[in-house]
Amino acid sequence: MEVEDQRVRVHIWDTAGEERHNAMSSKLYRGANGVFLVFDITNRESFESLNIWMDIVNKNCHPSIRKVLIGNKCDLNEERQVNQTEGENKARELNMTYHEVSAKNNISLADAYLDLIKLVLHDKPALHDA
Question: In a 3-state reduction of DSSP, which class is residue 59?
Fold first, then answer.
């Protein structure tokens, strides 16, 4: 795809938050330039697990990796257990940008991907210094 007049190739790996993927994830994270941390807005436990996943990312990634926090399932607003302000505050606490999306209905997904790609493009030289 083209972003800001640059041709980029994006590879996406989804561990689905499964503990069994932790060993594999460390290898995937090592070569990553950006990462999405995704929680389910209808599941408070997934939100409360973000610090665990952030620790995994910090342990396995370059310190300057770009990160975006995603609140998924915004199409299920009536079942929401985590409000948007909580998501925004958590993103600020973790030094990330925040998007609410619906993977099911393709709501705001393109915006979230574009945000991460632009963050990586603007920081690319720093990511390869170490």
Answer: helix
